[in-house]
């Protein structure tokens, strides 16, 4: 279990004030065309409308805004499959801080280009995220960079928790929030806010069957690594992050695994029924909702569209599987 102290609801409130000058609230739209798929009243929180196309930017800005003078001088280093890297790069640019992002070989080219355009340096290392993470941890030790853990960072969790604040301010009678889980920062932030505002709200996580480390850890209540073979890079972690897990163990209502095909079909459902591009991780929330439709019947359900940075390759795969 992580020795870090989980962020509080007050930390999320402080994060909202901190990021407000830089990020606008995202839209929450009602989509009756999704009702028949999930069985309930479907709402979508559009984190794909963030300036980097994903929810994690909230955490990056919140963290960068609180760096000490020494940390700013040393610079930031982290590992990412894409969206977390964009988040750190975006926050670093706002506050004039050097950022280095370690990424696995073959990372999503759109996310790579975005990180570069935000002014960060990229180091490619290894086949999967966990190999890139190990390399940047070594560099942080050698060079003295401030290592930003992709999941075990209270300021990241507090920052991304702000999207759930927005959901519940706009839709206070929401009954279920379905959140994609890779590392778990988004879901743990949703749990913190929901517990403070209305503990009866169910927060349900959705993860890829082919990258189930977080699910297995949540279910067994002990750290469990697993094979990582999903196309959804936002869910592609082979080892769990224990700070988010410490929150999920207490407050996550349920956790569902979805297949690669179910996520690909959900990408098409989102495109056809909401006219939005969802990346694989974002599509996992809808795929999870479809899988749980009997349980969600008649409920007011918010699906978190966590990001829209789908690669052309994966979009083609989704369209072909649905044809």
Please give the number of β-strands: 10
N-to-C SSE string, H for helix and E for strand: HEHEHHEHEHEHEHHEHEHHEHHHEH
Instruction: State the end-to-end distance.
Output: 45 Å
- Indicate the low-confidence ranges by residue numbers: none
Average pLDDT across residues?
96
Strand content: 5-15%
Q: What does the secondary structure layout of this molecule look like, with pairings?
A:
Blueprint: H1 9-19, E1 28-30, H2 32-38, E2 41-46, H3 57-64, H4 69-74, E3 76-79, H5 83-94, E4 99-103, H6 109-117, E5 121-124, H7 129-143, E6 146-147, H8 154-160, H9 162-170, E7 176-180, H10 185-197, E8 202-208, H11 213-220, H12 242-251, E9 254-258, H13 260-274, H14 280-291, H15 293-296, E10 300-305, H16 312-321
Task: Provide a compact summary of the structure.
The chain has 323 residues and is an alpha/beta fold. It contains 16 helices and 10 strands. It is globular and about 55 Å long.
Describe this structure in words.
- The protein has 323 residues and is α/β, with parallel strands linked by helices.
- It has 16 helices and ten strands.
- It has a six-stranded mixed β-sheet with strand order 1-2-10-7-8-9, with helices on both faces. The chain has a four-stranded parallel β-sheet with strand order 5-4-3-6, sandwiched between helices.
- Strand 4, helix 6 and strand 5 form a beta-alpha-beta unit.
- The longest helix is centred in the middle third of the chain and has 15 residues.
- It is globular.
- The N and C termini lie far apart (45 Å).
């Amino acid at each position: 279990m992580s020795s870090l102290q989980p962020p509080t609801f007050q930390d999320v409130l402080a994060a909202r004030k901190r990021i407000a000058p830089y990020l606008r609230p995202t839209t929450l739209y009602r989509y009756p065309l999704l009702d028949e798929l999930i069985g309930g009243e479907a709402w979508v929180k559009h984190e794909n409308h963030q300036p980097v196309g994903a929810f994690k930017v909230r955490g990056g800005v919140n963290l960068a805004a609180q760096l000490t003078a020494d940390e700013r001088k040393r610079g930031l280093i982290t590992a990412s499959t894409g969206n977390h890297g964009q988040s750190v790069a975006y926050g670093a640019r706002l506050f004039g801080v050097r950022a280095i992002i370690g990424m696995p070989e073959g990372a999503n080219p759109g996310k790579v280009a975005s990180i570069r355009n935000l002014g960060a340096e990229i180091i490619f290392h290894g086949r999967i995220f966990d190999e890139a993470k190990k390399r940047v941890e070594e560099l942080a030790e050698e060079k003295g960079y401030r290592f930003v853990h992709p999941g075990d960072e209270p300021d990241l969790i507090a920052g991304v928790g702000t999207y759930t604040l927005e959901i519940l301010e706009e839709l206070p009678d929401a009954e279920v929030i379905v959140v994609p889980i890779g590392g778990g920062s988004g879901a743990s932030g949703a749990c913190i806010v929901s517990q403070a505002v209305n503990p009866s709200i169910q927060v349900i996580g959705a993860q890829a069957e082919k990258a189930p480390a977080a699910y297995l850890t949540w279910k067994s209540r002990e750290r469990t690594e697993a094979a990582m073979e999903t196309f959804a890079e936002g869910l592609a972690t082979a080892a769990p992050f224990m700070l988010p897990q410490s929150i999920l163990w207490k407050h996550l209502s349920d956790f569902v695994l979805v297949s690669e095909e179910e996520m690909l079909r959900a990408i098409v459902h989102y495109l056809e029924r909401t006219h939005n591009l969802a990346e694989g991780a974002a599509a996992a929330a809808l795929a999870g909702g479809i899988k749980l439709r009997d349980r969600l019947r008649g409920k007011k359900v918010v699906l978190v569209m966590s990001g829209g940075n789908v690669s052309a390759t994966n979009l083609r795969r989704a369209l072909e599987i649905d044809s």
